[in-house]
Specification:
The complex is a heterodimer of chains A (about 160) and B (about 170). Chain A has about 160 residues and is an all-alpha fold. Chain A is about 75% helix and about 0% strand. Chain A contains 7 helices and no strands. Chain B is α/β, with parallel strands linked by helices. In chain B, about 40% of the residues lie in helices and about 15% in strands. Chain B is built from 5 helices and 7 strands; from the N terminus they run αββαββαβαβαβ. In chain B, the strands form 2 sheets. In chain B, strands 1-6-5-2-4 form a 5-stranded parallel beta sheet. A two-stranded antiparallel ribbon of chain B has the order 3-7. The longest helix of chain B is centred in the first third of the chain and has 32 residues. Classes of the chains: A mainly alpha (about 160), B alpha/beta (about 170). Chains A and B meet through helix 3, helix 4 and helix 5 of A and helix 1 of B.
Chain lengths: ~160, ~170
């Protein structure tokens, strides 16, 4: 088990996983940041949160998605970002399962406002898709120990400068 | 090694909380500054428009030609006077009314009749409207545990045009 956890290849495998996950979260945040009122409507449609929390969620969540996405792409605090994406994926999946359980016939609202989005009705396929992203998040969280990215590049540059007389 | 992994993951969890709080603070600041910012607490309930789940069980649309098949139990969902004027041969009437729910006893009796007939398929036809009473009654029957329920697209008129079933005056 230790050998598997410490395998050096994880750093390289986690890189495309991080970039992909980062891209997904960054892209998903854009329409929500651009139109928080529409996103608030999407949140309300899931019929889970009390009225007092809907707008706060609609205002804050997209920015957390964006920051986590950028962190994953750049490799700065990527493990912390993986915590955030893991938490968000669990939250989204709970919301989806509850909506499916209630029999709500609605669009996901994941990458465009539900009112604009057609052909992306929530289903168990959506839950399966989110499960894939959740697994990727957990993989990055556990195995991306020495992330390749800006942070590594900066420390390498500093190391070189120190060595250069 | 596992202990160092645990502490590293634990440390990153604290960082995650700090990042989330910082992102939330940024979000709140942007929301305050933007002209179309949202109030932090909604003043009125959101009027969400989510279609209600379709009532009843599964029903499959079919062409009038399905009545030519063997082992078909035919149900007419129209009014008594329409049934008296014309109905497909062997059809049993159980009127579906948009405003008045079909009595549960009648539905249970119909489900029992279908089960006793050992029919392979149950075909319901109605007025062919939108929504079609045949479709709606089919859902009600299907919800009572009857499988292979179909409704004829276009209703009684489609059957008469197709000539699929001998007409009973």
């Amino acid at each position: 088990m230790n050998r598997f956890i410490n395998w050096r290849g994880h750093g390289f495998l986690a890189l495309p996983a991080r970039w992909y996950l980062g891209w997904v979260f960054a892209v998903a945040s854009i329409h929500k940041i651009a139109d928080p009122a529409a996103f608030a409507m999407d949140v309300a449609t899931y019929d889970i949160l009390p009225l007092q929390l809907i707008n706060v969620m609609a205002i804050c969540l997209p920015w957390i998605e964006l920051v986590a996405g950028i962190a994953l792409i750049t490799g700065v605090k990527s493990r912390a970002a993986a915590w955030l994406t893991t938490g968000m994926m669990i939250m989204f999946m709970v919301a989806l399962v509850l909506a499916l359980h209630k029999g709500l016939d609605m669009s996901c609202g994941c990458f465009a406002s539900a009112s604009m989005e057609e052909g992306d009705e929530i289903s168990w396929k959506t839950v399966l898709r989110d499960s894939g992203w959740l697994l990727l998040s957990v993989y990055v969280l556990i195995f991306d120990k020495a992330p390749l990215g800006m942070r590594t590049a900066v420390s390498l540059l500093r190391h070189r400068k120190r060595k250069t007389p | 090694m596992e202990r160092s992994l645990d502490s590293s993951i634990g440390k990153s969890l604290i960082e995650a909380v700090i990042i989330a709080l910082a992102a939330a603070a940024l979000a709140i600041a942007v929301n305050v500054l933007r002209p179309a910012g949202l109030p932090f607490v909604a003043k009125e309930e959101y009027e969400t428009m989510v279609p209600c789940p379709e009532p009843g069980g599964k029903v499959t649309p079919a062409d009038a030609a399905i009545l030519r098949e063997e082992g078909v139990f035919v149900v007419d969902a129209r009014e008594q006077r329409d049934f008296d004027a014309w109905h497909a041969a062997g059809a049993v009437r159980l009127t579906f009314d948009y405003l008045d729910p079909v009595p549960e006893a009648d539905l249970q009796k119909m489900a029992g009749d279908i089960a006793r007939a050992k029919a392979q398929k149950v075909v319901v036809y109605g007025d062919g409207g939108t929504p079609d009473t045949g479709d709606l009654l089919g859902r009600e029957i299907s919800a009572r545990g009857i499988r292979n329920v179909f409704f004829v697209k276009g209703g009684a008129a489609a059957i008469r045009t197709d000539g699929a079933k001998e007409v009973t005056p």
